[in-house]
Amino acid sequence: MLPVMAVSIFFIGWHYYHQYRSASHYRLVALVAAILLFYAWVAIGVARREQRSLFDCFVQASYYVYIFCVLTLTGYFIVFNQVSAHHWWQSIEARVARREGVNLEPGFLRRGYHYFNYEGIGNTIMLLPLGIYFPLLYKHLDNFLLVTGTAMLVSISIELMQLATYTRVSDIDDVLLNTAGAAIGYIIYYLVFLLLPKKPAPAEAGPAG
Question: CA-CA distances (angstroms) from residue 200 to 56, 139, 180, 190, 193?
Fold first, then answer.
């Protein structure tokens, strides 16, 4: 957990200085609660998973640092503060009714310009590592359809979280691009796995005598 704690402490210091210097104690408590909840998830994951080698430690540490970065980019650490605001649910209902910052039509926001722009590439890359981490860390997900399906659920959860913040765009295109990125990540993982030298099978013992 040390790399995650180091990154999060840096984040708290930078975020506090730039955005929370004059904030109320209530907002600070919301930020700390969000980070502690993330710590609890990491601690449970580390306790349930073995670290049998330096490679295992590296994969797990980098995975949790990556997840922390994704949560930071997608607004997880502000959702607690905004959900607790007055008339939050009414604001969400009005936003959905007006389709303000909500796109359920694939290609709508990008109609008229190319998918391979900064936003499109960023959304594709964002969940690409999941296609590699999932089969490494969760052996029951070592399957293309399971990886892409799980990544799609993760992306949908991110978009719903962004809807809850009512300051970010929830876009079906992001779900499609995120899922495509995870699929590419799994293909990369699979190709590398095929290229790695295989351990020779142990020789069978001959008949005694």
Answer: 22, 21, 35, 20, 15
